[in-house]
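Key idea: predict the complex, not the pieces.
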Amino acid sequence: MTLDVGFLGYRFMGKAHANALARLPMFFPDAPAVNRKVLVGRDEAAVADAADRFGFDRTTDDWSEAIDEVDVFYNLGPTHVHAEPTIEALEAGVHVMCEKPLATDLETARRMREAARDSDAIAGVGFNYRYVPALQLAKRLIDEGLFGEIYRVRGRCLQDWLGDLEDPWNWRTDEERAGTGVLGDVGSHTIDLARWLIGDVERVSGQLTIQIPERPAPDGDGTREVTTDDEYSAIAEFDSGAVGVFEGSRVATGRKADNSIEVYGSEGGFKFSLRRLNELRVLGPNDRGFQGILVTDPNDPYIDAWWPPGHIVGWEHTFVHENYEFLTSVADGTRYRPDFEDGFEVQRVLDAVQTSNETGRRTRI
Amino acid sequence: MTLDVGFLGYRFMGKAHANALARLPMFFPDAPAVNRKVLVGRDEAAVADAADRFGFDRTTDDWSEAIDEVDVFYNLGPTHVHAEPTIEALEAGVHVMCEKPLATDLETARRMREAARDSDAIAGVGFNYRYVPALQLAKRLIDEGLFGEIYRVRGRCLQDWLGDLEDPWNWRTDEERAGTGVLGDVGSHTIDLARWLIGDVERVSGQLTIQIPERPAPDGDGTREVTTDDEYSAIAEFDSGAVGVFEGSRVATGRKADNSIEVYGSEGGFKFSLRRLNELRVLGPNDRGFQGILVTDPNDPYIDAWWPPGHIVGWEHTFVHENYEFLTSVADGTRYRPDFEDGFEVQRVLDAVQTSNETGRRTRI
Amino acid sequence: MTLDVGFLGYRFMGKAHANALARLPMFFPDAPAVNRKVLVGRDEAAVADAADRFGFDRTTDDWSEAIDEVDVFYNLGPTHVHAEPTIEALEAGVHVMCEKPLATDLETARRMREAARDSDAIAGVGFNYRYVPALQLAKRLIDEGLFGEIYRVRGRCLQDWLGDLEDPWNWRTDEERAGTGVLGDVGSHTIDLARWLIGDVERVSGQLTIQIPERPAPDGDGTREVTTDDEYSAIAEFDSGAVGVFEGSRVATGRKADNSIEVYGSEGGFKFSLRRLNELRVLGPNDRGFQGILVTDPNDPYIDAWWPPGHIVGWEHTFVHENYEFLTSVADGTRYRPDFEDGFEVQRVLDAVQTSNETGRRTRI
Amino acid sequence: MTLDVGFLGYRFMGKAHANALARLPMFFPDAPAVNRKVLVGRDEAAVADAADRFGFDRTTDDWSEAIDEVDVFYNLGPTHVHAEPTIEALEAGVHVMCEKPLATDLETARRMREAARDSDAIAGVGFNYRYVPALQLAKRLIDEGLFGEIYRVRGRCLQDWLGDLEDPWNWRTDEERAGTGVLGDVGSHTIDLARWLIGDVERVSGQLTIQIPERPAPDGDGTREVTTDDEYSAIAEFDSGAVGVFEGSRVATGRKADNSIEVYGSEGGFKFSLRRLNELRVLGPNDRGFQGILVTDPNDPYIDAWWPPGHIVGWEHTFVHENYEFLTSVADGTRYRPDFEDGFEVQRVLDAVQTSNETGRRTRI
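Result:
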């Protein structure tokens, strides 16, 4: 059996997923066979060019038509176009991989979750950082109890891609299309990781900032108002009694991929940064300092599929692992995580951060 | 002229300040001459032994008597004994160096500030981390505008000296004597540094946790309730529009001296950790990455007094610098910073964090 | 035009090159088209399985037959089988990519170089570390003179894959098949990088060690003598007056991918470690400390082909870049570097290290 | 009993030792009492000023006279004035602490060792890096066998204090007064540490470089020839079968205190850099990565004398420890290490490196 797949979106995420699918046969030979059937986009020439490079059979500008033809639909477009095609696909029994965050607002996310609940299809959400080998190892260590009772998680994602006043306005700086700014874009990753590692959030205090309130219009004609946060901060209280501190920025001058997470508990903890994606620093109960572990041994998560110890993998490999697991779930009919339940729970936290920012009150999830 | 000084307190802080005074003549020959005259404490044998090692002429158990005899009074006792002797000294025109935080509560701190305002004496507060050479350099760079408009400060102090369930109850875990726990103890350092570097805080959201709610009684007989926070988190909004995220812990397994502060703005930023006290990582406007600067060059702050480049100094040196500046102000009659105005402003933030924790609301300072 | 290629060898290096060829069309669309035509190996079942995963049309156990059918021949076998097929290919005008080191001894390497000189075909040698983006950036900075007159290069490669006494004997521990041990295996990489960056070596003092003199036989029956070095050290004097210090180990407990190179000169320098393949630490003339640069910006070498800033690449990407350049040279008929001239020069240094080790004398290249 | 001490030399080393003596009573109360009696130097005004700051009773320009008056003589002058006063002191039964290296050449060092052998006085040599707490911990771990059979030691000291072409000629760049350059100056530290940790060196290959062959004369009048090495490299073979690689530089642009040592063996190893003097990175038999240990716990070497965990000490503290041990040996009549036997053994290695550099041959110690 070969799965026919369609993609909506052919830029950054389109390339990342297309590459992942292309690499599965050589490195994960037991993954389901996939046929890249149809690529959806509005700019005909650009889509045709992408389809050619990404290995798709054909293109269309009609996502509805694409959904009709495929077994699996990848929604890789801007956030405000997540809901409609995704719901239609799920209603048609077509499996969906939807990029994060699920939606621009909580109600839309709830409708997407309901569609997933009502469908037999698998509905995955693109929190690919769960599939970093080092973070898989961290999860394993937490679950084994190595760190004892967890006290605290600290997550942040600092970038500077909008750090320059001349960086232009784009859909991510527009509340209508993106919902939130850095909060939804990369804060959703941080919150998903924290939930996955530590459990559910109960209450949150949040703060959003727009440090650069207007930007050059993309067409070069004057400026446009920025309506989404370029920095966020949050303090989260978890059901378990643990506390989380989260931050994100798009204007953190000089920071790139400063996407890090730390957890500690009564017996130890770990530290991780995406900048050093192959490393996990671990403090166990008998350690005096953090061990800088290179997570490239054969029994480390997913590593036996790749290269001998010491030969590091990159960011894109997380998409290979994610698609391997997702497509295996699709083929086997088993539950895939993170699914729309996870995506919705993350959206609830995003929403509570926004509410807390507006009301000035600690907000229950 | 030689300044007669008296110390209340002869443990950790007593040793740190006594050492600083003893080292001034060799390294800062223009510092005022000091006579370590009287050491105040209740345990006669222990005080006598300390006086002998710290070079004090005599001891007493009566701080009031000591104040009568000295030009400068160092209040190095637990927080709940800061106010009374300090106010008496200031009323008597005796200069005061008081350890941080100023008081167990805001009202007491206000009374201390009023006493300082009403006195001609110098009233310093022991925020010694301002005197780390690397942080003096950071302050210089901020003031020169190297980092542009400041967006964000991140400060934390993680320790594990109460990380073990068997670590006993002590005055710092008791609300009556300490006011707050880790918040006042080391959070006050973080907040003072942030104010010094960035300016005043306008509003704050705070969260306090007691992860280990009871501890062995110090006399070994049963357990006692812990009534101060062992972890705190806060989001601060500064007058300038910058945002601060602050954290502290006494139960952060495996962390020691993980006392760090980062600032970034529109043009760059810096990172600092007390663990690597001689280093400042700096990102300037033309840099692609943080420069790891060893702050041991002759024109770095205070370094010409010490050793040639590359010969690192330690934590204790901050006390030498602090006392050099403080005693010079005393001798010259010039304003010393951080003074009780600074100490009071920090206390207002501490108080607001507590209020926010209790009410669940963002709290105006 | 599509280039037909054949591989001799289907294990680690076979997989690395096959993957590189498979990835070229999506990321380097202007690379010549390649058809993976024939895979050569002796174990029929293993070769068939590899051919299936690596995307080869067919298999054979006769390399001579393969050479007849292809435009490009990849020699990815053990060192002692480099010479014969490679020379035959070159004599037939078939382009060759040969893994490093060129040969088990200098005379054989010389014969290979002569074959390359006598052929119109391109003869590349697999020093893929030249194609690390961070090292390409380093090369660019050296060539621009940023570091002034170069004084020193320090290169090392520490691994522990033979660190355990129970790690079995294999072809790399056998002088007949490997020539040297860690010296040729990874020392050749270090020496090639140093030559590429700094220029030719004039004299060398070398030292080889066998710390673990016997190992379990691969068939489990008793032990076999180790006849190649598991550690080497060398001091090299370059034509330019610079000095190099080189080291390698296979028994460096706990080290993996500790493959690093540092260069400094009169105005600055850089540091690099394969463990953090996406980073280059650079000290320029006006810097007080090394800048930790993440080499993932669009104008960094090869990066525009991959992902946005901050999304790190892995070890395998060096093979994509290497094959992109090699195949482009093949298609365009331009010189490819590193070629057999480079491979031979490296072999001369390896040979001189061995000679110096035996004679105890500094040895002229 | 109070020990009367005299110092020859009042610059860098004079200050370091005077400070150490001044600090002993407060931190090491069981150290012998010391009276700083006489300071020897030729520049009357400068010596008088130093004596005042360093706490000496009086000054003289006649070292012979000073030796007559004291129990302990500190020879802190340039290398070429080590021998004569030291030998006279030892012959007079006066204890000696002599800075490193012992002498400008091996024969002089031998005469000094003979004088020490013939005397009942203690003769210490100032290899203070043995007294870094982190290195004391490293020594303890090696001796306990944590790292198994030692394979390799890597030591280097990179500085840039003569990195600028305009840095003037001085006694350390003059073969007559210094013997060697960076080799003797800081290479002697590296070699002493290696011997202390691993054992005696059997054979060595050495290489010396003068990258900057002339420098401005100190009087500003023209230039003078540099006759000592500004860089050295050496490969050492130890009696035990371990191998050492050593390097040093005074022209390593941007490097300060880059004084590091690494050791590894069959079961693990450690890494240390003077830049992070309070840290030891340790890999034990069950570790996957190096633990970054902050060596500030109460049971770490010498730490209980200082501050609570996490409060780092500086470079100067090594002199306090060194003098504590040395004076205790003086008072108790016990052997002090490193003594002139150690100093002589280091000198033999220095001499062999020079010989090897000249002859081009591996040289037996």
